[in-house]
Amino acid sequence: MDNSTNKKVNCLIIGSGPAGYTAAIYAARANLKPVLYQGIQPGGQLTITTEVENYPGYADGVQGPEMMVHFEKQAHRMGADIRYGIATKVDFSSHPFKIEIDEEKWIEANSVIISTGASAKWLGLESEQRLNGFGVSACAVCDGFFFRNKEVAIVGAGDTAAEEALYLSKLCTTVHMFIRRHEMRASKVMQERVLNTKNIKMYWDTDTAEVLGDKHVNGVRVKNNKTGEEQTIPVSGFFVAIGHQPNSEIFKGWLDMDEAGYIKTIPGTSKTNIEGVFASGDVQDKIYRQAVTAAGSGCMAALDAERWLGAKGLH
User: Fold this and answer.
1) CATH number for the domain including 209?
2) 275 and 132 fall within a common domain
């Protein structure tokens, strides 16, 4: 371990969505000299979102990637040290904590704020993975453009699926929407929008059996899980919107998590079961999962870290 990588960081922030950047803004203002590693997707999930209409302060809405640029610039202006790099391993057995970056260097940190977010889930079909990037996508907003005036399919039943189906309906001739049960999980307003959109065709009680195509998607085979009846629908694109998985793998064995892998925090705080390690944003929130709640929890994490460091005389 060379000396250049062995520098101790007072407050290390892992992840760069609304939670991570807000934590960086608050920690920098508190003179904690935060170092933030951006992770595999700088800006987080909002970089694969188009119009954000529900974040306060943007009267006319804002593009997700643009908003994340604003967050980053603000954190940078406050003095946060923002770096490219991915946390690949942690050792929370003693203090200061040790964090491996890019599988090559270890850094030490007096406090750690985890803001690693969540990632899209897949169905787990061989054909889905084989054709990923060749008509299969988990982001309608990123890839919908390529399917203008074509027929596409989307699988999912929550708000994200509804949102993506509506987005695709503006670009594509027909959107075939597959719902596993006989009802959607989406909020009532989103369900109504989907059901009132003429070119979204709903398939209830429907499972995806296989995505079809040799080099590119050209269809999908679905099965009605009540009747067992199968049908093949010709489509050019297949979008998966079945939820998210918290990016918490490297913290397993160190931090308490629920059965889905979301990091548990002490209610009303960002504190984990290890003193000095805090969690904010979607990696610990499976209920709200909004940019504004993530930002709020990033603020909480920075304030919790500041108080903890102060109490330990490490401020």
Assistant:
1) 3.50.50.60
2) no
Spatial contact of 97 and 10, defined as CB atoms under 8 Å apart: no
- Domain of 154? 122-240
Is 136 found in the same domain as 110?
Answer: no
Contact 87, 101 (CB under 8 A): yes
Round to whole Å and give the CA distance between 291 and 315: 29
Q: Minimal CA–CA distance to 89: which of 99, 81, 104?
A: 99
Do 284 and 205 have their domain in common?
no
Euclidean distance between CA atoms 165 and 145, whole angstroms: 13
Identify the CA nearest to 179 among candidates 200, 148, 149, 151.
200
Q: Which residues are catalytic?
A: 139, 142-143
The whole-number pLDDT of residue 49 equals 65
Task: Quote the pTM value.
Answer: 0.77
**Residue whose structure tokens are 């998607």:** 217
CA distances from 78 to 10, 66, 125, 133 (A): 16, 19, 46, 38
For 163-189, write each residue's pLDDT tens digit.
Answer: 999 999 999 999 999 999 999 999 999
Do 131 and 214 sit in the same domain of this protein? Answer: yes
Q: What percent of the chain has pLDDT over 70?
A: 96
Span 242-254, pLDDT tens digits: 988 999 999 999 9
Q: Are 151 and 236 members of one domain?
A: yes
